Amino acid sequence: MNETFLRTEKLSALFNGERVVKNVTITFQKNKVTAIMGPSGCGKTTLIRCINRMHELIPGAATTGKIFLYDDEIGSINPILVRRKIGMVFQKPNPFPTMSIYENVIAGYRLNGFHLSRDEMNATVEESLRKAALWDEVKDVLHRKGTFLSGGQQQRLCIARALAMKPEVILLDEPTSALDPKATSRIEELIVELKDAVSILIVTHNTAQAARVSEYTAFMYLGELVEFGSTKKMFTVPENSKTEEYLMGKFG
Amino acid sequence: MKASSTGYRIIKDKLFISGVVLFSFLSIVPLLLILFYIIKNGIAVINWDFLTQLPRPMGEEGGGIINAIVGTLMLIVIACLVSVPVGVTAGIYLNEYRTGKIAESVRMAVEVIMGIPSIIIGIIAYTWIVIPLGSFSALSGGVALAIMMLPVIIKSTEETLKLVPNTLREASLALGVPYSTTIIKVIIPAGLSGIITGILLGVARVAGETAPLLFTAFGNPFMNYNILEPVNSLPLLIFVYATSPYQEWHSLAWGASLVLVVFVLLMNFITKLVTRR
Question: By a Cβ cutoff of 8 Å, what residues of chain A touch chain B?
């Protein structure tokens, strides 16, 4: 049942020589939600940005160690192909302002120059928006600008845009930190529904959110992976005293 | 004691506000006076013939400035063809590579070009193009104007693209879109109105330039569509007519001034429209 599809091996990430992720070795299970939590600045966002090779785009950034997607080492694949297999949703909703809702969903194909027939495009757009639980709200306004939507809808549009590429995994980088509680719970429901279709890694500094949506949780502190295991176990009997202190709100 | 000092402060405050209003108003007075004067003197000669006919020899009634209008448009088109590709690309480069030796020197060069007197740019175009080709030409005039437009376009492209949020670039890259496509299909469309604004401001800046055209486009009393031959332009025509001793030519110069000012105002107006969108 459990299948490892993504793992890191002694992964370190550096900014101008300073290590912000230190020797992280971790395995992710297919079709599960894995939460990465920890206080601000612990390197959790940097960790997932290494996975789709977005980290290296920042001047002065470097990585050591290896990441495997199934048997392929990510460092040896062209980053463009890596990013098509590993989708990402960012903290702040970022639909393309010049494109309509429809064009936003299909943007991954359009911008990459893949030619789809009209029927294929329509099908992909509908399927992706349905998966992102946005279809019913936008099906009559598909050709309006994506930026007319509310913040929560924009974030679901960004999820649909990532899903449209049919990735192996979606990385969610604190996807609800810019949203109100109602939109947040909507996204959380969506995450739980989505895991049958796609594996999910979610970065969050909200421990309650990690407990609500994830099956596995990784706790990071000062760039190190402190504890990793099933969410249930971590939130009831954490092995590490640091994890316990964090969960009890003593720091972070 | 307390009351009187408060009263004094209120008075000071009111004086300051009226001062600000007064001086702001004073700054628009010159514009209004210029417009008033040009319209008053120029409107009388403006008619269909004035806009569509060639100038007549001295002593004949009527005649128009169509050759200067066409020449100005030709010069602007040539200037845009040269400066828009170079300027927009350089602006993109400066935005993408903010630090580094090349970016720093390009940035400095842009500021220096901005400050070079236009007559010197004319001389440069003269030595580069007029001398090798052996003739004054629309091409050389267009290149001189292009050099003047460059800094405006580069600066405004860079400033506009700086305002395009980095999250957009990341959104595109995270979809596996190559860098070049991200720039062309995501970043530039997001900043397009600003880039167009820069181009229009550049056009407005050079439309009225006379000095760099004196020994490049040179002026031409006849109609010319050949870019390798001299053309007339509105500012050159105004210069020649206004310094001539003939009363009729003076009024033609006023009419041409009105046409030129309206053109420049129109550019500024379109710029405003584009930015608002």
Answer: 52, 54, 57, 80-84, 87-88, 90, 92, 94-98, 107-108, 111-113, 158, 161-162, 165
